Amino acid sequence: MDRVTQLEDAFDTLVKVMASAIAYLSRKASHKQVNARIPLTVLGNTEALTDDDLASNRQELVADLIAQAKDVQWRISQLPDTSDDPNDNTHLAALETELHQANNEYREAVAEARDLCAQLDKLVDRLCDEQQSLRTLLDD
């Protein structure tokens, strides 16, 4: 697996861990009304934990998030440097020239194939016409 795919997987895992942590904390927190004018609404059932248990779980979730974020950061640091290397530019220019040459050769080959196809069509038409003429002569 290449480095970019590994980074994508690590980032995907980080996002999943974060979403799971938010969902867990939302489900386990004891929701308290903070403003008398705004009613407290909770979607679904909550399984409230004590404040100490929730704080302990929250610290564990934060540690997991930090570990996953450090993994993503390490994978980013392992990506190749994007600085301009003169050798890379020369190599890319040579590849581009080679690509243009191959593309021109392909176009010439296609044009030649079309020309040969047209010649073959003319030959087949001529043979059919001659055969028809011979049949007409033989039938008379």
Please, could you describe this protein's structure?
This protein is mostly helical. The protein has helices at 3-28, 51-77, 86-139. Helix content is 76%, strand content 0%. It starts with a helix and ends with a helix.
Highlighted features:
single chain, 140 residues, mainly alpha, 0% strand
Termini gap: 78 Å
What Rg, in angstroms, do the CA atoms define? 37 Å
Query: What's the structural domain tally?
Result: 2
Q: What is the helical fraction, as a range of percent? A: over 70%
What percent strand?
under 5%
Task: Briefly note the structural class of the backbone.
Answer: mainly alpha
Mean pLDDT: 87
Number of strands: 0
Contiguous low-pLDDT stretches (5 residues minimum) are none
Shape: elongated
Sequence of secondary-structure elements: HHH
Largest sheet: none
What's the number of helices? 3
